[in-house]
Amino acid sequence: MTILVVLSCVGLLLALPVAAIGIGARFTANSVIYGLAMVACLASLAAALGHLLADTGLVPAVTLPLGLPWLGAHFRLDALSAFFLAVVDLGGAAASLYGLGYGRHETAPRRVLPFFPVFVAGMQLVVLADDAFTFLFSWEFMSLASWALVIADHHERDNVRAGYVYLVMASFGTAALLLAFGLLAGPDGGYGFAAIRAASHSPASASLVLALLLLGAGSKAGLVPLHVWLPLAHPAAPSHVSALMSGVMTKVAIYAFVRVVFDLLGEPQWWWSMPVLALGGITAVLGVLYALMQHDLKRLLAYHTVENIGIIYIGLGLALAFRAEGLPAVAALALTAALFHVLNHMTFKSLLFFGAGAVLTVTGERDMEHLGGLIHRMPATAFAFLIGCAAISALPPFNGFVSEWLTFQAVLQGPKLALWGPKLLVPSVGALLALSAALAAGCFVKAFGVTFLSRPRSTAAATACDVDRFSLATMLLLALLCLLAGILPGLVIDTWGPVVGNLVGQRMPVQSVEPWLTIIPVAAGRSSYNGLLVFLFIAWAALTAAQVIHRWASHAMRRGPAWDCGYPDASPLTQYSASGFAQPIRRVFGSVVFRATEEVDMPPPGDTGPARLTVMVHDLVWATFYEPVARAIGILADRLNAFQYLTIRKYLSFVFVALVVLLLALELWL
Amino acid sequence: MDKIVFDIAHLLAGSILLVSFMMLYQDRLSALLNLFALHAVLLALSVAWQAHVHAAPHLYVTAMIALFFKALFIPLALHRIVVRLNIHRQIETVVGVGLTMMLGMGLAALAMLLMVRITPDSDLLGREDLGFALATVMLGLLLMVTRRNAVSQVIGFMSLENGTILAATGAKGMPMVVEISVAFSILIAFIVIGVFLFRIRERFDTVDLQALDQFRGEQG
After folding, report:
1. Which residue of A648, A649, A650 is the best one to mutate when testing the B interface, meaning the one whose CB has the most B CBs within 10 A?
2. Which of A445, A475, A509 is the C-terminal boundary of a domain?
3. A-chain residues within 8 Å CB-CB of B153?
4. Residue B145 and residue A649: Cβ atoms within 8 Å?
């Protein structure tokens, strides 16, 4: 029953593009499409959450006569699917609500409206699929729909290039997944997930599947070095789609990884956790370092997605390590942390992208160096954005803190591991995690400070006003969710007890029975966290401080010049800039990670020309992994060019020779 | 009884292969057309014999199609085209006759060896037939590769098609729909190529493909 409700929601979303093309009037189409998409997402969300909370152990499944004739399309809603479906639906509903307002500013709505519901439906189908064919079909469907949204604004050259890079990387990822499922299905072609689960996989082929999944799901999620498309494509799409791609689609990739590695592949081998942990750690640190170098607000957020994907992969790697060594309780903790971060990242990354979209709508600017002072002109947006920044920087009492804290709790259990490889790797990954968390906080001080504080750096920023009420409502609701998940973490953790229980064989201890909403991941003596108390303390401390200040200081609001260094009327350009903020970190890490070089060009004495500081930053990942491949393909294509315009007889000769060679090979081989 | 059945099928399929070889060295166009007609007649006979042996009446239809379209209609039409185009002259082959024949023999040997090797489970009749059919296909392709003239390439293509029909009738249970579609595809290919020949002739005064290559500014 549940699954039929969910599938009919998917069907409604798939039918919406027809309506989008059918309805001529612009405003009506916008409201109808986003409104219905939101209704479908909310219905599906209710069904998924109901299934997850009921925890009856029933797994509804349905086979539709679609797709391959002898296979059909299998759909199944177990706890894992229900959890990720809830994430997709929540993100989809938020993006639809935001789209109700944001979509009205769209220059070419017909390039966005038909693809938006299809994209959401594709993601829902991926998490529901229960056979390899349906899974891959939905996966590709999702990729292509999002590609169409990336190039929605095709007049910009950069967007078209982003779409191209995305398409190449998406095809590469799907190819890797195709091979992985081919290996899983074996020579008999058991493509149903039930058959794959029942089959036993040899260690070699299982390891190969893991590697292919790191490539396939990793390229969609944004693991370094497969992340290159992500900071190009996510900002290129309209902002609510950026939120969906960054907040939700990367989670669907995580789902693919969890589904195969934890569910279909059987018991993990001892070393599997090591590549996952190492990649996760590197991704987390590199993602945030890249983000620090960015001055484009949406691109900064996209790089932060890379960082958060790294954190999630660290949690998954820890779960693999503990599970392989027979410590299911700790594995449950690590997996819970990873899943909690999946939900959290969806919430605050959507919120931040919506905020960036609001800024983009009212100012037309994505470059932070042209913004500033928006807190006075867009107070509600600034408030929501600030909460998002605090949450993503893992500050209590918001949700980001809880999941990162849980991940650290799992890291601290590292000494329980018996094998030396993972045992040594876990603390170093913990250090990388701590580093990335600190850098992320710095990065969001920069993002919020430069964008919303200080004085406007352009007239667009100076004349801005707050956005429409749909966008504001979406952002404030998501901010509320960030806070609620932060102060009620026990309830959230208990909700996906069944997910974790199915995957690692044990759940975390029930948290909602603890007094005062405390969460105790391992044992009361070791560590505990109480979001509510922290929240109350912060609120009390802030109120008291405000009271004290207002009591002992003047009541009058004064607005003083910021950072004026004794020059009160200087140009806003003399303010602390985004690149200035990032410079210390660029100097510390940049020379190694980015091969950053700075050149100061001083004019000779007497010359009145300006001095110039040029900073060159190289993308090592692009230069190491992608340029050689691109060069090789270019050379190969040049060589093959000679075969383009031959005579018919030459082509026939090629066919003939190829046939003879193949037949000869067959003859010799047999 | 079985022996004679086998021998006759063998004889007919072998004759088809033999005619294929004759087509390989026949460098005069009208003679080539006559040989192709003979090729098709032998195919029709072979298919009819298979129909008789396997008691499969629908194969008679295939035999009829082969006889009327390939042995009568197409060669006659091509004769008319050749006469109208005024190209009864000797046609040049790319490779010398001796080398072509050597290649052809090598291909036939390869085809026979391969077919006997990879189908150990089938009955002997089918195996031998398949070997001959593959050899005919290869010789048709060789004919296309070694000729410059468009008309002889068309003939090479259709003799290749004859090989596939021989293979199809040798394999039991091939539905007739396939044969009809194959026959029609040949007919359409023939019509299209015929039209093209006239177009090419109108434009360039020749059907020698080398002239076309020169027109494109390339070496033939």
Report:
1. A649
2. A509
3. 648
4. yes
Q: Record the tokens describing residue B64, joined without a space.
A: 């009829």
In a domain, A660, yes or no: yes
The DSSP secondary-structure symbol of B175 reads -
Residue A659: its chain B contacts at CB < 8 A?
138, 141
In a 3-state reduction of DSSP, which class is residue B149? strand
Q: Which residues of A touch B218 (CB under 8 A)?
A: 645, 647
Going residue by residue through chain B (220 aa), what tens digit of pLDDT does each one get? 567 877 888 888 889 999 999 998 887 888 888 999 999 999 889 888 888 887 777 778 778 878 887 888 888 888 887 787 777 665 666 677 888 889 999 999 988 888 877 776 666 666 777 888 889 989 998 988 888 777 788 888 888 888 888 887 766 555 554 566 566 667 666 766 776 676 666 666 666 766 666 766 655 4
Establish if A366 belongs to a structural domain: yes
Radius of gyration of chain B (CA): 18
How near does any CA of chain B get to the CA of A92, in Å? 50
| Residues of A whose CB is below 8 A from B94 | 649
Cα–Cα distance, B36 to A303 (Å, whole number): 69
* Chain B nearest CA to A653, separation (Å): 6
**Are A352 and A254 members of one domain?**
no
Query: How close B213 gets to chain A, by Cα (Å)?
Result: 7
Domain final residue, candidates A509, A536, A570 = A509
* Structure tokens belonging to residue A7: 């599938």
Structure tokens at B55: 């008691």
Q: Which residues sit opposite B28 in a β-bridge?
A: B90
Query: For residue B159, how far is the Cα from the chain centroid?
Result: 1
Residues A138 and A230 occupy one common structural domain: yes
Buried b (16+ CB within 10 A) or exposed e, A333-367: bbbbbbbbbbbbbbbbbbbbbbbbbbbbbbbebbe
In a domain, A528, yes or no: no
| Facing A663 at nearest CB: one of B110, B142, B216 | B110
Rounded to a whole number of angstroms, the CA Rg of chain A reads 26
pLDDT in tens, A176-225: 999 999 999 877 778 888 888 888 888 888 999 999 999 999 999 989 88
Chains A–B, number of C-beta pairs less than 8 Å apart: 41
Least Cα separation, residue B110 to chain A (angstroms) = 7
Cβ-defined contact of B138 to A660 (cutoff 8 Å): yes
pLDDT tens profile A145-176: 999 999 988 888 888 999 999 999 999 999 99
Residue A484: domain span: 267-509
Tokens of B94: 């790319």
Place of tokens 């992994």: A625
Within a domain: A603:
no
Q: How far is B189 from chain A (nearest CA, A)?
A: 16
Nearest residue of B to residue A652, measured between CA atoms: B145
Q: Quick check: B138 and A648 CB within 8 A?
A: no
Per-residue burial over B184-220, b if 16 or more Cβ lie within 10 Å, else e, is eebeeebeebbeebeebbeeeeebbbbebbeeeeeee
Tally of structural domains, chain A:
3
